[in-house]
Amino acid sequence: MSRMENKLNLHQLQIFRTVAKHSSFSRAADELIISQPAISIYVKQLEKTVGTPLFEKVGRQVFLTEAGHCLNDYCERIFALLRETIQAMEALKAGENGTLRVAADTTAGVYVVPGYLGLFRRTYPKVTISLEVNNRSTVLKRLLLRETDLAIIGQVPDNEASLQVVPFLSNELVIIAPPGHRLATRKNISVQELTEETFLMREPGSGTRATAERFFTLQGIQIQVGMELGSNSAIKQAVANGLGIAIISRQAITLEHRCGSLVILDVEGFPLHRYWHIVHLHNRALPPPAVAFKKLMLENDI
Predict the structure, then answer these.
(1) In which band, very low, low, confident or very high, does the pLDDT at 12 lie, cut at 50, 70 and 90?
(2) d(Cα 184, Cα 242) in Å, to the nearest integer?
């Protein structure tokens, strides 16, 4: 850094710019509410720093020298950039710019989060959005490694003090079957009857699977897992083709249930009631876009 860089400062440049605007030390002093002698001292210090006169006096008026004109042009650019910087920081503070990084478990990432992101994009069109969809374990790992700002998951880990967890939307887990299934039209099906069925389950690490396994353990029964599949779409297709029954979020089968390709079984204890959660690290200040997105999710029901 040169000697001049060490000595130049915005206060000096602002005073110089004001004198140049008015061609008058006294009017600059009035605008800045500084005494005229102080204005003169600042200008002389600036001239000493740059090593050349910046004004020439003609009668009561002062005029810019060639060096003064050059410096004034740079001042306009410097203060324009400063205004732009302030606007950018204010926009970031308001969540209007920057990047929003969200990770969501498979069900939330496909059936819940996109609707909120659409609303967010319409509200904050200049924010860059990144959405990663994965199983719950991977999503939590990404959050703990600070590789994402917010996680949207159904099943939250127990006793994880580093996480702040906020429920925001009801999530019902239901049991689905094809329309021709033997239990499709039955009412009040006992949980015990499900031991005769083949279940299609998500992979280990899935929140839906963890919730289902906890429920059946509490009921003291063991179900038959015939197949593990890595996505809700695969599970729905397998169920529709008669390969078994499955537990899935009601939000994931809205279309199939409406058109009749899948039915919801009326089983005692179901639906299992839980929530989608917004999760982030306790000891980390969220970036403004993440703060804005969290607020939007809590205030809107899509």
Answers:
(1) very high
(2) 12
